[in-house]
Design brief:
The protein is α/β, with parallel strands linked by helices. It folds into three domains: about 120 residues, Glutaredoxin; about 130 residues, Glutaredoxin (3-Layer(aba) Sandwich); about 240 residues, Four Helix Bundle (Hemerythrin (Met), subunit A) (Up-down Bundle), CATH 1.20.120.310. It has 20 helices and eleven strands. The strands form three sheets. A five-stranded mixed β-sheet has the order 1-3-2-4-5. The chain has a four-stranded mixed β-sheet with strand order 7-6-8-9, with helices on both faces. Helix 14 runs antiparallel to helix 15. It starts with a helix and ends in an 18-residue tail after the last helix.
C-alpha cells in the first residue's frame, strides 16, 4: 500500500470519527475560548459563565475531565442563563490571560457574572469542589444573584413580563418565605444550600430562607413558554384576588387569568413537577436534549490538538516537551542498550550527563537528580547497561517529566520522526546554549552517534560529512552552531523522499523561506550570518515554547 493511500485512509478515519478527537465537545455543552474571544464572551450580558482553566497535558486536568463532562451535560438545562466554557492555559498565546487571572494550578473553576468586566480585585469566584452535585449547588447560589431571581413585589406588573418576553405564555408565581414566618413552607433536603439553611439566615439582609422559588426556576429553564417569579409578600396575592395559602402555585396566562397548582410536598422538585405536568398537558416541550457522545480518548484528543496547533502556527517553534522527551528517552531507553561502558564510551556518557546537567531546560529538581547520577557515573571505571539502568532508576525515581508528548516532533504516522527529531532538537539547543569549550557539544553528538546509536547508515553519513567539514575546524561557538545545522541539512537532503520521511513534515533544507526570509539571497544561497541569528533565536532557552508541558510554570 503506497504512502498516498495510507494518508487518504488516515484522513477518512479522522473525519469519520466526528468530534471524538476533541478534548471538549460542543455536543457536551462545552465551548472553548481562546485569547481572542475570552474577554468578549465573559462580558456577555445575559448569562453567567462557568470557565474551567485547564492544561490538557496535566494529569489533574485529565483526571477531572469525566466529572466535568458530566457536570457540563447536567448544566445544559440552565443554558439560558449559564454558559460553560473551557480555556487552555497550555497554549503560549493564552499564557498571559491565565497569568493575569492568577491561575496557579489546573484545573481551576471560576464563575463570572453576566456582563463581567475584568477587575484586578474581581477575577471571578473560584469553585474548589470537584464533586458534581456540590458544584451545581454552589452555582445555584451564585446564579441566584442574577436579575432573573429578583423578588416580585406588589408594585411590579405581570403585564410587563409578557410585554418584555414575547415567547412567554405563562408566568408561575411561587411564594417563598422566612422559616420563622411559615414553618411548613420551608424546603429541606433538595439541594446542598437548602439542607443547610436555618433560622439564623432569616434577617433583614436575607429575609428568604426557602429556596423553592429559585430552584423551581432553575429546573424549568428548558421551557421557553414559562417564567417563574418568586415573591415573599402576602400582599402580592391581593393583586390576583387570592387569599394566602400554603403549597400554592399561581399560574397566569396572557389574559392574567389565574390557574392554581398544588404540589404534593414542599420542595422545588414537587413544584417543578407540577408546573411541568401542566406544560406537557398544554403540549409544550422542553429544549431538545443533548445528543449522546462518546467519552474522550485523551491521547487521541491531545494528538489532534497538537496537529491542529501545527496547522495554525505562524512560524517554527522549539518545544520544551521535545527536549524533555529526548532526555528521558536517552536515559531510560537508548543508553541501556549498550552492554558495557568502559574507556571512551564511559567518557562520552559522562560528558553527555554533564552537558544536560548544566545546559538542559529541566526543572531544578530534575537537575539535582541528574547531578546525582553524574556524580555516581564519573567515579566508575566500568558500567554495564543493566547497572546504568539501575543508577538512572534510583536517581530519577518518583520524578515525573513534564513533557510526555512529542510536540514539534510529532509524527503523522507511526514509526516516523519522534525520537530522532527530538535528538536533533536537543543538540541544536545545546549548541546555542553552550558555555563550554568551543566544539564540546558537537564532539559529544559525534561520539553519541558513533557509540550509542544502532544505525550503521547514520554513522556512515556522519563520516561522509566530516570528510567535507572536519570537526577540528570548529574553533568557535558560532561555528559549532553552524556545523550542526549544516550536518542536519546534509542528512535531510539525502533522506528527502525516503521511506523514513513523514509526508506531513517533509525533510526540507531548513530554515524555510517562510520561517526566515532573510536567510537566503536572491540566488537562493545561504546567508550564514542571518542563519546564525535565526538559529540562536529559535533554539534559545528564552524562546522555548511551553505548549505540551504538564506544568503551570508558563502561566505562574
Amino acid at each position: 500500500m503506497n504512502r498516498y493511500i495510507i494518508s487518504l485512509l488516515s484522513c477518512i478515519l479522522l473525519f469519520s470519527s466526528g468530534l471524538t478527537e476533541l478534548l471538549y465537545n460542543p455536543d457536551d455543552n462545552v465551548y472553548q475560548l481562546d485569547f481572542a474571544t475570552f474577554e468578549t464572551r465573559l462580558g456577555e450580558p445575559t448569562a453567567g459563565k462557568l470557565v474551567k482553566f485547564f492544561n490538557g497535558f496535566c494529569k489533574e486536568s485529565q483526571d477531572f475531565m469525566p466529572a466535568f463532562r458530566k457536570l457540563s451535560r447536567n448544566l445544559y438545562k440552565w443554558r439560558r442563563i449559564l454558559k460553560v466554557h473551557v480555556f487552555d492555559c497550555s497554549k503560549d498565546e493564552n499564557n498571559e490571560i491565565c497569568r493575569s487571572f492568577r491561575i496557579r494550578r489546573t484545573p481551576t473553576l471560576r464563575y463570572f457574572p453576566m456582563a463581567y468586566q475584568r477587575n484586578p480585585d474581581d477575577l471571578g469566584t473560584e469553585i474548589t469542589s470537584r464533586n458534581v452535585k456540590e458544584i451545581e449547588s454552589e452555582l445555584g447560589l451564585l446564579l441566584g444573584k442574577m436579575k432573573y431571581f429578583k423578588m416580585f413585589t406588589k408594585e411590579d406588573n405581570i403585564t410587563d413580563i409578557f410585554r418584555d418576553n414575547a415567547h412567554v405564555k405563562y408566568v408561575a408565581m411561587v411564594f417563598q418565605m422566612c422559616l420563622s414566618n411559615f414553618l411548613p413552607h420551608f424546603e429541606t433536603g433538595n439541594s446542598m444550600e437548602e439542607r443547610f439553611a436555618s433560622i439564623d439566615d432569616c434577617n433583614e439582609a436575607n429575609p428568604v430562607v426557602s429556596s423553592i422559588g429559585r430552584n423551581t426556576l432553575l429546573e424549568l429553564l428548558p421551557y421557553n413558554e414559562v417564567v417563574i417569579r418568586v415573591f415573599d409578600d402576602h400582599e402580592v396575592y391581593s393583586k390576583f384576588g387570592i387569599s394566602p395559602v400554603p403549597n400554592l402555585i399561581v399560574l397566569l396566562n396572557r389574559s392574567i387569568k389565574p390557574l392554581f397548582l398544588t404540589p404534593e410536598i414542599d420542595n422545588s422538585k414537587a413544584y417543578a413537577g407540577a408546573i411541568r405536568q401542566f406544560l406537557v398537558f398544554a403540549d409544550h416541550k422542553p429544549h431538545k436534549p443533548l445528543p449522546k457522545t462518546l467519552p474522550t480518548n485523551i491521547n487521541e484528543a491531545l494528538r489532534y490538538e497538537i496537529l491542529e496547533h501545527h496547522k495554525h502556527r505562524r512560524s517554527h517553534r522549539v518545544y520544551r516537551a521535545d527536549l524533555e522527551r529526548a532526555i528521558n528517552q536517552i536515559l531510560k531507553v537508548e543508553l541501556r542498550r549498550t552492554s558495557n561502558f568502559i574507556g571512551i564510551k564511559l567518557s562520552v556518557l559522562n560528558n553527555f550527563l554533564r552537558l544536560i546537567y548544566y545546559l538542559s531546560p529541566l526543572k531544578p529538581e530534575a537537575k539535582e537528580k541528574l547531578y546525582s547520577l553524574y556524580s555516581k557515573t564519573k567515579i566508575k571505571t566500568r558500567l554495564t547497561g543493566v547497572s546504568l539502568e539501575e543508577l538512572v532508576f534510583k536517581a530519577l525515581r518518583n520524578y515525573p517529566f513534564d513533557g510526555n508528548h512529542y510536540i514539534g516532533c510529532i509524527a503523522s504516522q507511526p514509526f516516523l520522526r519522534g525520537f530522532s527529531c527530538s535528538l536533533w532538537t536537543l543538540f541544536h539547543y545545546l549548541t546555542v546554549e553552550s558555555n563550554f569549550k568551543s566544539g564540546a557539544v558537537v564532539q559529544v553528538f559525534n561520539a553519541y552517534v558513533k557509540f550509542f546509536m544502532d544505525c550503521k547508515d547514520c554513522v556512515d553519513k556522519l563520516k561522509e560529512f566530516k570528510k567535507l567539514r572536519p570537526l577540528r575546524n570548529v574553533r568557535s561557538h558560532d561555528q559549532e552552531v553552524l556545523w550542526l545545522w549544516k550536518l542536519h541539512n546534509f542528512i535531510n537532503k539525502q533522506l528527502a523522499g525516503d521511506s523514513t520521511e513523514d509526508p506531513q513534515f517533509p525533510k526540507i533544507q531548513f530554515p524555510s523561506e517562510k520561517d526566515c526570509p532573510n536567510c537566503r539571497d536572491n540566488q537562493s544561497e545561504w546567508r550564514t550570518e542571518e542563519v546564525l541569528k535565526y538559529l540562536k533565536n529559535i533554539y534559545s532557552l528564552k524562546n522555548l515554547s511551553w505548549f505540551g508541558m504538564a506544568s503551570a510554570k508558563a502561566y505562574t
